[in-house]
Write a structure and sequence with these properties.
The complex is a heterodimer of chains A (355) and B (249). By secondary structure, chain A is an alpha/beta fold. Chain A has helices at residues 9-19, 35-47, 57-69, 80-95, 122-126, 144-161, 171-175, 219-237, 257-272, 290-296, 313-320, 340-350; strands spanning 4-8, 24-27, 50-53, 75-78, 101-106, 137-139, 165-170, 177-181, 209-210, 241-244, 251-254, 277-282, 284-286, 302-307, 326-331. In chain B, the strands form two sheets. Chain B has a seven-stranded mixed sheet, sandwiched between helices. A two-stranded antiparallel sheet of chain B has the order 5-6. Classes of the chains: A alpha/beta (355), B alpha/beta (249).
Chain lengths: 355, 249
């Protein structure tokens, strides 16, 4: 069995990034993710990697643009206001069809908000976030183990489809200590090989150009249509989720991240009381696991969406179920975290008292 | 017959779209020549800015990238740190470097990032149609200062070399111009130093080049050269502002 350690989620992520063979980090301090750059600065030094503390999140995402264009795995982490600043850069990187990893340890917003955990950046993450027609592959961890394992998955998906990938965590997941099993065989960065797009000097080959634009009439339209085809493939092949007790449930909770952890406790309480309640936890927020929800809506009448915001993912649940199901919502915005009894009460309302 | 003059191998065989009298073509040629003369073309990665010289990604015959407006020094940092063997140069105009990208250039200089920056100062936003730049001279007309830059309302120009010379970080800073053959030769010498500094892994080098924009200034090419001599150079004095090779001897 692999080694197991009690770790902060944010520290587990650093080990996961290194195990994924990434040796490039650039970032700017912001709470509640500071443990990532702090620990990363030590670990990158030990591993012979690059760590740059930047003058802003804008500089950080553009350093990633450069490092990825040079063919290297590159990541940054930040929290909500910092991620807003990165959106221009993410748009350029998506436009240039390059992979990078951006981690958003979400805090309460809008504006400066607070440093408590939140899920209020769901729309930003799943609708592209910046200008132009594009999407970012978005993973939602719900444990320190996920934080350790998801960077590798994010790099692999990002490189397979040549697209930026996001990990959407929150302050609670990042700062919670949990046992982490070091389950992955670390990737040797040297084994990753040369990328076909890498800017490395044109010795022995044609020169390469990395850019998001093309001024030839009609060419930008074609580029967007090609990218849309890519997104169609991602939606078909990469929907990921975890389903518990969902088959023929009377009510299915849909929640991700910390909201899913709390919902998990509520589901167990409800089932002890004899209620037939399931939990569907999206692992990919984009592509959203719409297919399984469409299937479940054939046999389940009631869905309860639990989010740490005013109601964002609920739109995707409605779209996925084609508004055929009854969809209730329980949300805690601005850094509020729901409790299991709160969710249990909502389940009881949805089912019209305990069944 | 012996060929005496031609396009250097550091430039692609592409017709440049720059206006008559524009300085970009001159600087492009100098860089194209240096990529060959210093034998760095096959190690080079160039950064094309946002502005008229966004087309540089088609003109330089080496690997190129086109980042967001002003972020050339950050993208350069990413490439150089990821691939220290590459020779990375960031080509930027005055809107790109001295307005929207002020933070990135200051911090790349402060870190003494081992890159070469080519900064074209023509005192105007060219591509967007002649608006006021951070380097537009007091009293100089632009489409957003039609009666001339009013220093009471629009403040003063930014002198980039002087500003960066206040930092301990940068290795080499020089201001040149391309309005006469003599100055073009000096500019080539400065750029050669700036690229050589990177080859020798010394650190951050920036060459500011005072350059003509007859279209943006609303004058003829000949008048634009005279304007540099009479107005630009007195405000932006030419010379070396930092050369740490001299300090370290």
């Amino acid at each position: 069995m692999a080694e197991k350690k009690l770790m902060y989620g944010n520290h587990a992520m650093v080990e996961g990034v290194l195990a994924a063979g990434c040796r490039f980090f650039a970032g700017y301090p912001i709470t509640p993710q500071n443990e990532i750059p702090e620990f990363m600065s030590i670990r990158m030094n030990e591993e012979g990697g690059v760590f740059v503390q930047t003058e802003s999140e804008i500089a950080a995402i553009n350093m990633l643009f450069g490092a990825s264009a040079a063919g290297k795995r590159a990541m940054t982490s930040s929290s909500s206001p910092g991620i807003s600043l990165m959106q221009e850069g993410i748009s350029y990187i998506a436009g240039a069809n390059l992979p990078v990893l951006v981690v958003n340890v979400i805090r309460g917003g809008p504006g400066l908000g607070n440093i408590a955990p939140a899920q209020s950046d769901y729309y930003q993450a799943t609708r592209g976030g910046g200008h132009g027609d594009y999407f970012t592959i978005t993973l939602a961890p719900h444990s320190a183990q996920d934080l350790y394992e998801f960077p590798k998955l994010a790099f692999e998906l990002g490189e397979k489809y040549r697209n930026p990938a996001l990990i959407l965590a929150d302050g609670l997941l990042g700062q919670m200590m949990e046992p982490v099993e070091f389950s992955m065989t670390p990737v040797d960065p040297g084994s990753l090989g040369e990328r076909e797009w890498a800017l490395s000097g044109c010795k022995g080959r044609e020169r390469r150009v990395v850019r998001s634009y093309d001024l030839k009439p009609g060419r930008l339209e074609e580029m967007n249509i090609e990218r849309t085809e890519k997104y169609k493939t991602i939606k078909e092949k990469e929907q990921r989720y975890n389903a518990q007790y969902c088959s023929k449930a009377d009510c299915i909770i849909v929640a991700y991240g910390t909201a899913a952890r709390v919902s998990d406790a509520a589901v167990r309480m409800a089932r002890q009381k004899g209620m037939n309640v399931g939990l569907l936890r999206p692992i990919t927020l984009w592509p959203f696991p719409a297919d399984i929800l469409a299937d479940l809506a054939k046999t389940t009448e009631n869905f309860l969406v639990v989010e740490m915001n005013c109601g964002q993912m609920i739109d995707d649940v409605k779209l996925a179920t084609d508004c055929r199901a009854k969809i209730a919502f329980h949300g805690r915005p601005g850094g509020g975290v729901p409790t299991p009894p709160e969710i249990l009460e909502k389940i009881e309302q949805v089912l019209g008292g305990s069944k | 017959m012996k060929k005496l003059f031609g396009r250097p191998a550091g430039l692609t065989d592409t017709l440049m779209r720059y206006c008559p009298g524009c300085g970009h073509g001159i600087v492009h040629r100098i860089i194209g020549e240096l990529l060959v003369e210093l034998d760095i073309r096959e190690r080079a990665v160039g950064i094309a800015p946002v502005g008229c010289s966004v087309f540089a990604d088609e003109y330089f015959n080496c690997d190129m990238i086109q980042p967001p407006h002003g972020r050339g020094p950050a993208v350069s940092t990413g490439i150089k740190r990821a691939r220290p063997d590459c020779i990375v140069f960031s080509y930027q105009g005055d809107g790109d470097l001295a307005a929207i990208g002020t933070a990135e250039i200051i911090h790349a200089a402060a870190r003494n990032e081992c890159i070469t920056v080519v900064f074209i100062n023509n005192a105007i936003f060219g591509m967007t149609g002649g608006q006021m730049a951070p380097t537009t001279l007091p009293g100089m007309k632009s489409t957003t200062s039609v009666k001339g830059r009013d220093i009471k309302k629009q403040g003063y120009p930014i002198k980039v070399c002087e500003m960066l010379a206040s930092l301990d970080g940068p290795y080499y800073l020089e201001r040149c111009s391309v309005h006469t053959p003599k100055n073009i030769i000096k500019t080539k010498k400065a750029l050669k130093t700036a690229f050589t500094n990177q080859v020798q892994e010394h650190g951050f080098s920036l060459v500011e080049i005072v350059s003509m924009c007859p279209t943006g200034w609303g004058v003829t090419p000949v008048e634009s050269k005279n304007y540099i001599e009479e107005a630009m150079v007195p405000y932006f004095p030419l010379g070396i502002f930092r050369d740490r090779s001299k300090e370290e001897v």
